[in-house]
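Sample intake — Saccharopine dehydrogenase NADP binding domain-containing protein
Collected from: Chironomus riparius
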Amino acid sequence: MAERLDVVIFGASGYTGKYAIISSINILKGYKWGVAGRNKQKLQDTLKEVEKKTNQELSSIPIIIADINDEKSLKEMTSQAKVVVNCCGPYRFYGEQVVKACVETSTSHVDVSGEPQYMETMQLKYNDAAREKGIYIVSACGFDSIPADMGTVFLQEQFNGTVNSVETFITWGFTEGYKPSGASIHYGTYESAVYGYAHANELGGIRRQLFKNRLPKFTPTLKNKPFAHKQPVIGDKWCIQFMGSDRSVVSRSQRFFFEEQNKRPVQMQAYISFGSFFALTTTIFIGFIFGILARSEFGRRLLLNHPKFFTFGAVSHEGPSEEKNANSILGMYFVGEGWKEKLSEPTDQFDAPMNKKIITKVTSKDPGYGATCDALVLTAKTILKESDKMPNNGGVFAPAAAFSNTSLLKELQNNGYTFEVIKVEEK
């Protein structure tokens, strides 16, 4: 049998897959990597397109034919790789087949899913098998969960005390002078959100099986902020609770730190900000309609057949333009509160009020796709280089649980992400 490639990008001819190829050119220098998908011509065309954009010769990149509906072809693909970078979503429909093939062929797997039902089901069904095979299955390896999960770890490392809670606030903007137009979100991301919302009621049952033991109650309890509020930390911008997967992902990592590493888990809540009250109210209106329609099959068909109409042009099958991606900037602020003193045991409680606060920030350009795929490919590279620093000799993990003891945080900083401390306050 031929030696395995280090990395195979599955779904490489898709929107996200193309960006993963671009990221791999620099990040995977010195490694053997290939691309995979069901249509050879589309894969060849994608490689030629990337060649023109990057002025890099890609004719020698191996091409593997694999179809999500053909189990044999998936196993043939995964058996040729040490790590599969899976860009084929929505993962609710197309993720488990690849994970299953990876487990059966002892191949690690990373993806950019933001779908809690899928991620937690994979942990429930495949964690033990992945550990037995000595492989890692890690989801949520892009925007926005990598900044949220690794950003929380960064805050904990900088705190020098005991962190009780963290609140995150997402800001989204553009480089000075750039006037954005056109879609901001690719249809695939939108489709995942539609089905994720429609099946959110599944999470309770999954979590009761996955997390059989409740965490101890830690005080003071982090309370949710008002539905819509202004946040001084980010210049009094309007904020609402962020309905993405950040809280789910961070909570899984923090539970792992408590159960496996005897560390006090951080309570977390996520919010997203808006530049104006009009933008806030427009988003709430879209969200209200989205929530009603996503509950029925007929409503979901409407949402999926007319994405531009129901999002006022924010979503399209073509996705955002390359110019818009390149000029996009993500800021994620973290407000951590706790005590400057340290506890001897994670379940110990403080009698005194919290006396320390820290504000940190993660920033990246082109967060939705370019920086997402940089982070995705970096996670694959980290598994190749530093699996000895990763937990339990294998398993299914959220990003911070998998990579907190590796150099991933440093590598993110070397590849366009900025992690910084803004302010520290002590009483």
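Post-analysis note: The chain has 17 helices and 16 strands.
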